[in-house]
Amino acid sequence: MGTTSRRDHQMHLGAFIYYAGHHHAGWRHADSDVEGMFGIELYKKLAATAERGKFDMMFFADLLYVTQVENSASGMLDPLTLLSALSTVTDRLGLTATVSTTYNEPYNVARKFASLDFISGGRAGWNIVTSQLDIEAHNYGKPKHPEHGLRYEMAREFVEVVTRLWDSWEDDALVLDRESGRFADGAKVQPVDYTGQWYSTKGPLNVPRPPQGYPVLIQAGSSGPGQDFAAQYGEVIFTAQQSKKAAQDFYASVNSKLSQYGRASGSLKIMPGLSPVIGATEEEAWRKFHELQALIPPSSAITVLSGFLNYDLSGYPLDQPLPRDIPDPVAASNGMKSRVQLYMDMAYQDNLSILELGRKILTSRGHMQFVGTPEQLTDVMQDWFEGYACDGFNIMPPVLPGDLDDFVNTVIPVLQERGLFRTEYSGRTLREHLGLQRPDVGHFRQEVQRAAVDVR
Amino acid sequence: MGTTSRRDHQMHLGAFIYYAGHHHAGWRHADSDVEGMFGIELYKKLAATAERGKFDMMFFADLLYVTQVENSASGMLDPLTLLSALSTVTDRLGLTATVSTTYNEPYNVARKFASLDFISGGRAGWNIVTSQLDIEAHNYGKPKHPEHGLRYEMAREFVEVVTRLWDSWEDDALVLDRESGRFADGAKVQPVDYTGQWYSTKGPLNVPRPPQGYPVLIQAGSSGPGQDFAAQYGEVIFTAQQSKKAAQDFYASVNSKLSQYGRASGSLKIMPGLSPVIGATEEEAWRKFHELQALIPPSSAITVLSGFLNYDLSGYPLDQPLPRDIPDPVAASNGMKSRVQLYMDMAYQDNLSILELGRKILTSRGHMQFVGTPEQLTDVMQDWFEGYACDGFNIMPPVLPGDLDDFVNTVIPVLQERGLFRTEYSGRTLREHLGLQRPDVGHFRQEVQRAAVDVR
Q1: Which CATH architecture has domain B12-286+367-455?
Q2: What is chain A's alpha carbon radius of gyration, rounded to the nearest angstrom?
Q3: Reported ipTM
Q4: Class of the CATH-defined domain A12-283+368-448
Q5: What is the pLDDT of residues B228-277, one digit of tens each?
Q6: Given an 8 Å threshold on Cβ–Cβ distance, is B69 in contact with A25?
Q7: Potential cystine with A266: which of A6, A78, B104, B240 (Cβ 3.0-4.6 Å)?
């Protein structure tokens, strides 16, 4: 395969924290701390473990609703609140979280991430999502969630506004001269005066330019509009990839789009999700995996599958294959279209039963599921990394905190021995960990201008 | 004077943090850490000092704009981001901040404060404000800030929605039974289904009910609508009072309104702002005060005064009294009406020059300014507290961190010796510090119903 991208010589790793584990039934496992889900101690422990493992970053997803509280781990503390709390008990770890563009104000988002970047000394990253579901819209007094394409148009404008607000103070605007009484250089603090189709702001922001210039911009969409958005603004992509071949195609496709936006190769790191069930032997790993799968209630599998496919399957027999005559679920989906396609392909190719497909989704939500030993896992990670399928991985431990601990204790040392991962942080900021340049004021607008000149 | 309120036997204290000091020129003083304004170390130090002093809470104000960056301390890190960061390095201190109802979504505010309450073990408090200025509206894509009365109507609905969201999980909704796979009792997690004039939400919230039931509700308005709002929802009022007599009238007025809303006396703590310049001798204190006043640039005094009165005074001679023929500034003001009235009275009564009035506003922004020794300050605080002028004070150190340190080192011990302030925390939560009851689900709706029954 191969591309002409400038590659970092080591992979990047995220510690993706989700409920008391990524596996749907992970919270029921003895190694979970589900009792700690709504306190800070669990997350302090996880952050300490991730930092001990020299992870580039800790990553929190976000959902703006709850359903199925009866049988599923439900409810999430606000991710930015958690990251801020963790900033004072960590030193190097990147602190990244999902914040939706659809249900927030750009001025607030710009300020919150700038503030996190300041208090963490340049360790903040924003996973830009557009949310997914009508039930999220209903919590915000809106009758329905905006359509997929429109959401990305809105998101583009949202990010435009946010980056302009981060640029509204030049890097050296603060003077702080007690003697003369000059606090800042007013000429270097300028309004934004942005009037867009969906968002407008006068500015300037009420916080100076963040230490990293912009907190790292992360993007998680893998659909067409998602890829284009990432190629324009993303510096990290979290993507769901099930096979090395698909991941290589995705890697090549996204990288080829970078230049359209005047961006240097290497300026966008692609990190697929990876959910590892690890055992000292293969047998032990599989035993743990089957144990987890059996803990998924059949009713949850059906409910989640019905929701995912936008079609009520509760009347169908659980042990039969997914019917082929249901309305096209990809067309019906208003979010995660690429993920839905992936599962449809899997269901029909492998002739999975409804229960099997439902449980499969609940296992790692479309991300790569690995079961095996630390050496086997390292082999896969090395193969993908060296084969230009990715720049690293977002690790999704099935049970938290136990499986993050296991990963750091057993997999990280093997990666390090093979020279695939850092043994110590060399930088201070998340940009430094990721090998990303610090953007100048007006960074994206200059890139777009450069791209326009290239095209002419 | 006196009222029939149930009084706490000791006063309550807040440590109000604002820029590098409350005094307009405080940042220029040698004891300020203005260089630390956009980092976390300053705030960690302040929190540690406040906790050492056994303060009930730390309090952050908020402004959603910057102006005058050239000559004034400008820009503020997001207060909730700071409080979250401080939650992991403090143990007992209440963590309270201003969040505007006008430029946020109720679902987000409910969740953020619930999250802070969880991670701090029940130490969160929300200062409910409606913001003040058109330049804030402009940052949020709105042509103008809503009118004063309307804002309070909107705020009432906003708080209604937020408290219903906090109530959407019953206190014992979480089950967390690994064996049966039951995460929560679905019957105890219910939608809110609220459709209001300005805000609607379906719910439930995506976070369980906070440890305190509701984070403590603080209110800072002293105008008519502000008082009514506080009497309905507030559990703490931060108010600006210049004289004991006016404070006593305010205290009696607000307390008399409580029963209209079915609320018990003692369920609302009134804490005026107090900005103390302290010296070992009176002379030393006054020297410091005059030193600070002289650091206020005349241009800042005129600009701020003009903004405050909504009338451009830059053409007038600085050493002359405030002209009496300017348009009524109280009518022209769309925020802090009670504060404007207070300064107008002061200006005409004391025949202040324009410069003096401007500098006076910039000294403590309408709050009580004290200059003297720790013993003298304690006398004043005791006199107000015992005279039913307040339930405590929100301390506004003119220079930060220096003057908070001084207050804790020199004033707190005198208050403690006289039995007026705690020598150790007896509780864990902010409600416990303040002697406020933990509200049951449906608390405010029940109170309103009780009040309706009483009236009938």
Answers
A1: Alpha-Beta Barrel (3.20)
A2: 22
A3: 0.93
A4: alpha beta
A5: 888 999 999 999 998 999 999 999 999 999 988 889 888 999 999 999 99
A6: no
A7: A6
